[in-house]
Amino acid sequence: MDERFGFGRNWQRFLLALDEERIRAAEVSLREMLQVPDLSGKSFVDVGSGSGLFSLAAIRMRAKRVHSFDYDPESVACTRHLKNRFFPHAGHWTIERGDALEKDYLADLGTFDVVYSWGVLHHTGNLWQAMENVLRLVADGGTFFVAIYNDGGRKSRQWYQLKRLYNQRKFYRIALPAVFIPLNVTRGLISDLLNHEDPLTRYREYKKNRGMSVVRDWIDWLGGWPYEFAKPEEVSEFVKRRGFEMMLCVNKSGWALGNNEFVFARERNVAGGPERTAAISPA
Questions:
Q1: Does 273 reside within a domain?
Q2: Do 108 and 44 sit in the same domain of this protein?
Q3: Residue 249 belongs to a domain with what CATH number?
Q4: Residues in Cβ contact with 283 at an 8 Å cutoff, skipping those fewer than 6 apart
Q5: Beta bridge partners of 189
Q6: Total structural domains in the chain?
Q7: Residue 26 falls within a domain, yes or no?
Q8: DSSP letters along 183-242, please?
Q9: What is the mean pLDDT of the chain?
Q10: Which domain holds residue 124?
Q11: I want to staple 69 with a disulfide (CB 3.0 to 4.6 A). Which of 98, 111, 131, 132 is the partner?
Q12: Among 67-76, 116-125, 213-222, whose mean pLDDT is lowest?
């Protein structure tokens, strides 16, 4: 139970279905959330790069420097695969294994204009310490784009137990998806029929939201461990106290337990950098 869920194996399967449409969808997601036409002249760090899709999107959006790292070696391999496939000679794209909880590792990276970490920090086992560490990567005047699971109250705590079971025994890794996936498909079908919508539309359109695969996301959701969550105001206050202004907060999933997406801008010339605190907590 001390180990993290192996997201990399899922990302390897996702890459088999990666196409131009999914890559463009990832670029659109970055443009819309960061409110920029491209990343020309900007440095970009992908904290928990996963498949490497958003690192690839940043390169295609003309970032001057992209650094990708992930805790999971198989995710690192996925990101390297994308680089070798699309930009094998891109010297300004570096990839390695790293951990958001390793302060010394992050300190050696320097700072970046855009720090991107979508759905990662709540899987480290120490959300608030990881957030504290990663905020130090944001340059003065830089941008922090992060997504964190919403605190859905009792439902979040129930899912905590289910995820714990999933990661304890092989039986649950077979049984839970066998129940969860058909249930989600059926629930979506009923909703679409009642609203006189094409049941297939949700799956055709899904990859336009961050370019991901619905099935891969479902498995990641079931298996994602460790699992933490936070209310949007907790995340906002934590980051704002460290010299940032919140520019945007959305929950595109429309689901109480889905990710809240935040974009923060760091104030320029904050003396001493982000506030140092002895106790790491949302309060």
A1: no
A2: yes
A3: 3.40.50.150
A4: 234
A5: none
A6: 2
A7: yes
A8: HHHHHHHHHHHHTT--TTHHHHHHTTTTT--HHHHHHHHHH--S---B-HHHHHHHHHTT
A9: 88
A10: 7-152+226-266
A11: 98
A12: 213-222
Rounded Cα gap, residues 113 and 141, in angstroms: 7
Same domain? 138 vs 78: yes
Rounded to the nearest 10 degrees, what angle do helices 154-168 and 214-223 cross at? 90
**In this predicted model, what pLDDT tens digit does every residue of 43-64 receive, in sequence order?**
999 999 999 999 999 999 999 9
Q: Are 129 and 280 in contact (CB under 8 A)?
A: yes
CB under 8 Å to 178, separation ≥6 — which residues? none
Q: Are residues 71 and 137 in the same domain?
A: yes
CA nearest to 49, candidates 39, 37, 58, 62? 58
At 198-228, the pLDDT tens digits run 877 776 676 655 555 677 778 777 888 999 9
Q: pLDDT category, 277, cuts 50, 70, 90?
A: very low
Please indicate, yes or no, whether residues 44 and 178 belong to a single structural domain of this protein: no
The whole-number pLDDT of residue 213 equals 66
- Asked if residue 277 belongs to a domain, the reply is no
Residues 175 and 41 in one domain: no
If asked whether residues 180 and 89 sit together in one domain, one would say no
Cite the beta strand spans of 81-124 per DSSP E. 93-97, 112-118
**Are both 109 and 201 inside the same structural domain?**
no
The DSSP-derived string for 143-169 is EEEEEEEB--THHHHHHHHHHHHHHH-
> What type of residue sits at position 171?
F
Residue 237 counted as domain residue: yes
Give the gyration radius of the chain's Cα atoms: 19
pTM of the model as a whole: 0.85
Task: Give the residue among 22, 23, 27, 67 at the shortest CA–CA distance from 48.
Answer: 67
| Amino acid letter for position 60 | R
Bridging pattern class, strands 112-118 and 43-47: parallel
